[in-house]
Amino acid sequence: MSDANLPEGFEPANFSPGFLDHGGPYFLRANPEGPRTVGLRIRPHHINYQDAAHGGVLTTLADVALSHAVYDSERPHPGVATISLTTNFLTGAKLGDWLESTVSIDRMGGRTAYTSGQILRDGEPIASMSGVFAVKRAL
Asked: Which of 10, 48, 83, 96 fits a disulfide with 27 by CB distance 3.0 to 4.6 angstroms?
């Protein structure tokens, strides 16, 4: 599957090498109303034995989208670590599906951020998510 058919405005996220290279590739789009949107095309390496995206793929997308919103909310970027993550699956995703996140930062404290959002396919929610993140700002 090529990245040539990305929805308008999405560009490669180019997250740091490592684990996210295996789960992606991920894409970002600016959002004037809030945190950037994280996108993911479901590819063969995301599929489980039931020909659907593995729940771990959706959970990783939830973690990426929520934590990136916190990371990208300040300059300089703070360090962000997941404390708690909840993903509720509403329906599945199939090979070739394009998924997008919607995220809100519900509360940004001195050392902790609270977030929530959804994973959408064709504008319809397929998962809801919430997370609590440790925030480490540069001194």
From this structure: 10
